[in-house]
C-alpha cells in the first residue's frame, strides 16, 4: 500500500493524508462491490479510501474520496467534522455533507442526531474550539432519528439528494 496525491499520483510522505493505493499480492484477486477501482499510471489501484501511513507503516483511514467536500477552495473531510461533533455530550451521531452553494461551491451541512435539544450557537462555540473556522458547518439539522444504519454507515449521497 502507498499514499498518493489524488491528482498528480505523486507518492506522499508519511503522515500526509492522500488517496490509498494498493497492489494485490501474487495470485491474489479481489472484487469490491460498490466502487470501480481507479488505477494509477504505474498500475496501483484505489477504491477511493483516503488516509495516511505513519513512519512505522501503520495505515489510518480518514474518509472516502467521494465524500470529501470542496468548499471555498478548501478540502474538508466529513469524518473530521463528525469526530468533533461526537465529542459533544448531547450528540449521538452525525453525518456531514456538502450542499450546493453559489459562492463557496459547497457549504458544510451537518445532520446531527441528538439525545436532547442543543442550542446551535453553543454547538458552534464548541466546534470552534476543535476545528478551524472553515470546517465548522454553516448549517445544522437536528434530529432524534438515526443518521447511520445498523452497521454504522452513512449514505451521504442519499442525504445530499434529499436536501438539494
Automatic annotation (TrEMBL):
Keywords: Ligase. One of its GO terms (biological process) is fatty acid metabolic process. Transmembrane segments: none annotated. Gene3D superfamilies: 3.30.300.30, N-terminal domain of ligase-like (3.40.50.12780). One of its GO terms (molecular function) is medium-chain fatty acid-CoA ligase activity. Coiled coil: none annotated. The keyword Ligase applies. The keyword Iron does not apply. SUPFAM superfamilies: Acetyl-CoA synthetase-like (SSF56801). Residues 80-149 form the AMP-binding enzyme C-terminal domain. InterPro entries: AMP-bd_C, AMP-bd_C_sf, ANL_N_sf. Belongs to the ATP-dependent AMP-binding enzyme family. This is Unannotated protein.
Amino acid at each position: 500500500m502507498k499514499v498518493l496525491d489524488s491528482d498528480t499520483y505523486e507518492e506522499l510522505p508519511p503522515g500526509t493524508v492522500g488517496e490509498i493505493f494498493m497492489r494485490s499480492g501474487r495470485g491474489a484477486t479481489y472484487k469490491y462491490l460498490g466502487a470501480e477501482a481507479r488505477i494509477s499510471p504505474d498500475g496501483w489501484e484505489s477504491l477511493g479510501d483516503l488516509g495516511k501511513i505513519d513512519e512505522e507503516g501503520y495505515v489510518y483511514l480518514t474518509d472516502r474520496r467521494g465524500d470529501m467536500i470542496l468548499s471555498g477552495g478548501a478540502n474538508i473531510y466529513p469524518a473530521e467534522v463528525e469526530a468533533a461533533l461526537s465529542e459533544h455530550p448531547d450528540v449521538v451521531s452525525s453525518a456531514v455533507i456538502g450542499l450546493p452553494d453559489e459562492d463557496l461551491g459547497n457549504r458544510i451541512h451537518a445532520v446531527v442526531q441528538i439525545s436532547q435539544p442543543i442550542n446551535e450557537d453553543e454547538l458552534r462555540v464548541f466546534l470552534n474550539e476543535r476545528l478551524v473556522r472553515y470546517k465548522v458547518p454553516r448549517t445544522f439539522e437536528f434530529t432524534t432519528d438515526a443518521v447511520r444504519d445498523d452497521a454504522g454507515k452513512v449514505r451521504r449521497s442519499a442525504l445530499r439528494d434529499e436536501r438539494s
